[in-house]
UniProtKB/TrEMBL annotation:
It comes from Lentilactobacillus kisonensis F0435. GO terms for molecular function: DNA-binding transcription factor activity; transcription cis-regulatory region binding. This is Arabinose metabolism transcriptional repressor family protein. Keywords: DNA-binding, Transcription, Transcription regulation. Residues 2-70 form the HTH gntR-type domain. Pfam families: GntR (PF00392), Peripla_BP_1 (PF00532). CDD domains: WHTH_GntR. The lineage of its organism: Bacteria, Bacillati, Bacillota, Bacilli, Lactobacillales. InterPro entries: Peripla_BP/Lac1_sug-bd_dom, Peripla_BP_I, Tscrpt_reg_HTH_GntR, WH-like_DNA-bd_sf, WH_DNA-bd_sf.
């Protein structure tokens, strides 16, 4: 069973890290915390004493307790400045094992380690990983954005990274609101070349399947459209199906089936997919 003061400390710390108690904002008084957690004053004082020592809160004499700038002013642990935070949408499948392995190899050569986070393309997971890595005082970030074409609710956390001075780089996509450097493939050009090849070799009815809540999918779809624009004789024959990462995969597959199980003269002669894993499905 977890010791009471440890439980209280962990809960207050999580509220600070998650932004419920914001930097320089006053936190509840000792009496209020005692009532909230149903514990003694000694337990509260031990918990907040640890948090003060670690740099998460500070006291103003006669004015209560406030949230410290915990990113820049907290007590550094022995792990400080030894890890690079790597956040991707997936870890174990598709291209990601090779990407993460390559990152780890380069970072290891610099005497650093990798702290890995996985968002599953969910904003809540992205937020949790970013805050956890800030709390672990990573030296920098390598991040694959989550649903990069949509409005991101975690820009406040990214601003915390900017304010901390820690370097960050995006891979595969980027958020246009942020000025972090990024490394991307030219998805529009690559998709156009792919569809050009199909159209130049006699295909007319090509079905394109694209995930449209990330930048890669939208850019690939744009490449698909550009290819048909440069083949005006078949420009009305292409077909596009869009989906989002949150959609039920079985429902999406049923829709694909509906596009394929048609009379021969209307059936697509080729299909281009969002990525290789789609082809396997």
């Amino acid at each position: 069973m977890e010791i009471k003061y440890v439980m209280v400390k962990k809960n207050i710390k999580n509220n600070i890290i998650n932004g419920k108690y914001k930097i320089n904002e006053k936190i509840p008084t000792e009496a209020e915390l005692m009532a909230m957690y149903s514990v003694s004053r000694y337990t509260i004082r031990r918990a907040v004493g640890d948090l003060e020592h670690e740099g998460y809160i500070y006291r103003v004499q006669g004015g209560g307790m406030y949230v410290n700038d915990w990113i820049n002013n907290k007590v550094r642990s022995e792990r400080s400045n030894q890890s690079v935070g790597v956040i991707t949408t997936h870890i174990a499948d598709y291209i990601f094992p090779n990407i993460i392995s390559g990152i780890d190899q380069v970072i290891s050569e610099e005497g650093l380690s990798v702290l890995i986070g996985n968002t599953h393309d969910e904003y809540d997971n992205e937020r949790h990983n970013l805050l956890n890595m800030l709390d672990n005082d990573v030296v920098g970030f390598i991040i694959e954005p989550t649903r990069s074409t949509l409005e991101n609710p975690n820009l406040d956390v990214y601003q915390m990274i900017v304010n901390s001075g820690k370097p960050a780089v995006f891979i595969n996509a980027h958020y246009p609101q942020l000025e972090f450097p990024y490394v991307e493939i030219d998805d529009t050009k690559a998709e156009k070349q792919l569809v050009d090849h199909l159209l130049d070799n006699g295909h007319e009815r090509v079905l394109g399947i694209f995930q449209v809540d990330d930048l890669q999918g939208v850019n690939r779809m744009n490449g698909f459209i550009k290819s048909y624009q440069t083949h005006p004789n078949v420009s009305s024959s292409g077909d596009i199906m869009m989906y989002r990462s949150s959609d039920n995969i079985n429902n999406v597959l049923e829709k694909v089936k509906g596009r394929v199980d048609v009379q021969l003269e209307n059936r697509p002669t080729a299909i281009v997919c969002y990525n290789v894993s789609w082809q396997l499905k």
